[in-house]
Amino acid sequence: MKLLIAGSAAPWALEHHYIKHLAPLGVTLEVFDVASFVNYTILDRALIRLGNNSPYRCANECLLNKVEAFQPDVVWIFKGVEFQAETLKQIKSRGAKLVNYNPDHPFIRTSVSHGGKNVETCVPLYDLHFCYSRDLTNKIENEFGIPTTWLPFGFELEEPVFEKISKAEEILRIAFVGNPDKTRARIIRQLAAAGLPVNVYGHHWQRFLGKHQNINIFDAVYGDDFWQKIRQYRVQLNIFRPHNVGSHNMRTFEIPAAGGIMLAPDSPEHRAFFSHGEEAFFYRSEEEIERYCRDLLAREDVGEIREKARRRSLESGYDYLERAELFLKEIQKLRKP
Question: Can you give the three-state secondary structure of 235-276, one letter per residue?
C-alpha cells in the first residue's frame, strides 16, 4: 500500500509516531510537510480569520502535484485546516482514498490551527475518519454517514529512556507541562494562592501568570527532558482544552507511561483507560484539584501508584505501535471491493 501523509514532519508532531511505525509494517510512505508551504505571518493570520484562503494556495497546489507524482492509494490528512474542498475532490478523482484524523476538533476552533471553514466543509468528502473522541466518532458517523473509527492518542517511550528517567530524584511539587490558556492559568494561580508549589513548562506562560512566590516558570521541554519532567514531579496536572472535554488528550497516556502521577479531569474515557485512585486520579471540579494535590503531596505510597500506571500502559497496549496497527487494519478495508 502506498500512503501519503499530509501533515507535519516535525519530530514532536503526532504524525511522527505513525511515520515511524507504518513503514516497518509494510507501508510505502511519503510525507507532505504542510508547514513548508504555509507562512503564518500576522497578515496571513488576519486573512485566514476573515475567511480568505489565499495563504493556503501554495499548499493546495503542491499537494496535488505530490499526489500526481507519488500516486498513493490513500492520502491521510491530519487536521486539514489548509486544504479546500476542491483540492480533496481532485485527489479523489485521481483514484486515491481520503482519510482524516483531527487531533483537535473539526467543529470547535480555539486558534487559527484548529477547526475552521475548510475543515467543516470537507468532513463529508473523506472516505474514512479517525477520531480520538468516542462522542465525536459517533457524531460524524451518525450525522454524515461516513465510516469513522475511534483512534485514541498514545505514547512513544522507549525502554532505555524510561530506565533513565526513573532514576531521577522526585520533586515534591505540582507540575504542568503544556502551553497556557485562560483556564489553565486560573487553575495554576488558584493552587499557588492556596500555598501549593507549582512548576509550569511551556511557551508564553509569563503572559498569563506573572510572578508568584509559589510558581516557577520554565521553557517548553522536548525529547528526554519532556519525559523526565512528566515523571519526576509528585503531581502531574492535566487540564483539558475545550475540545477534549468528556474525552482525553495526549497527556492521558504520556504521563502514566512514564510512571507519572496524573491528576486529570474526570471523563468516561479516562475511567475506561485507568483505574481512579490506583493508576491515576480524576477531578470533577476545580475545588477537587486542590484537595487531590494536598493529599498526593503528603502521601508515602506513591511508588506503587507509579508502578501501576506504567504497568497498565504497557499491558493495555496504549503505545503508538498498537495505534499504527489499528490504523493500518482500518485503511486496508478501503481497498476491498
Answer: EEECCCCHHHCCCCCCHHHHHHHCCCCEEEECCHHHHHHCCE
* Domain boundaries, given as residue ranges, for the chain: 2-154+320-335, 159-315
The top-level CATH class assigned to 159-315 is: alpha beta
Residue 171: all three cell numbers together: 520533586
List pLDDT tens digits, range 244-268. Answer: 999 999 999 999 999 999 999 999 9
Q: Do 177 and 221 touch, CB atoms closer than 8 A?
A: yes
Architecture of domain 2-154+320-335: 3-Layer(aba) Sandwich (3.40)
- Please name every residue paired with 58 in a beta bridge, in sequence order, or none if there are none: none
| Cα 66 from Cα 55, distance rounded (Å) | 19
As a whole number of angstroms, the distance between CA 150 and CA 203 comes to 30
Comparing C-alpha atoms, which of 85, 114, 133, 147 is closest to residue 272? 133
d(CA 269, CA 135): 10
Q: Tell me the per-residue pLDDT of 43-64, one tens digit each, with 9 for 90 and over.
A: 656 666 656 566 788 899 999 9
Q: Is the pTM value of this prediction over 0.90?
A: yes
